[in-house]
Specification:
Number of helices: 6
Largest sheet: 5 strands, parallel
Order of helices and strands: EHEHEHEHEHH
Shape: globular
Radius of gyration: 14 Å
Distance between the termini: 30 Å
Structural class: alpha/beta
Strand order of the largest sheet: 2-1-3-5-4
Number of strands: 5
């Protein structure tokens, strides 16, 4: 599995925590930033990360901003991306099992590092269930291809 991670200025520290988790889990990843002191625009990091997941270069992506909302909106504009805003373990598991999400977004101003690590770990270790859920994902993909 290959994972890409990115954040805006509001998510730098939490992104570093997720990078440490990925190292602990022996998961190959690329961190594309940001590492700046000043304010940056979340689409400048979220969209390129989403494009790299959509292209197949990476299997999954984790994006972090202040609330996770902006990154979720930006990533979901990229065809083929199913980015889920997640702030609890149940949703992290459900979005993999039912929605086959290929990206998650989290808010550094909403959750702390311990919970963020558990969310990411659960999400990374959970498989898509397929079945009736595959039909639903297919409908979303069909609409997206119009």
């Amino acid at each position: 599995m290959k994972v890409i991670i990115a954040s805006d200025h509001g998510g730098i520290e939490l992104r570093k925590e997720i990078g440490e988790l990925l190292n602990e889990m022996n998961i190959e990843f690329e961190d594309i930033g940001c590492d700046c002191e000043g304010s940056v625009d979340y689409p400048d990091y979220g969209i390129p990360a989403a494009e790299r997941v959509a292209s197949g270069e990476f299997d999954k992506g984790i994006l972090i901003c202040g609330t996770g909302i902006g990154m979720s909106i930006a990533a979901n504009k990229v065809k083929g991306i199913r980015a889920a805003l997640v702030h609890d373990i149940f949703s992290a598991k459900a979005t993999r099992e039912h929605n086959d999400s290929n990206m998650i977004t989290m808010g550094a101003r909403v959750i702390g590092p311990g919970l963020a690590r558990e969310i990411a770990k659960t999400w990374l270790e959970t498989d898509f269930q397929g079945g009736r859920h595959a039909n639903r994902i297919g409908k979303v993909s069909e609409y997206e291809s119009k």
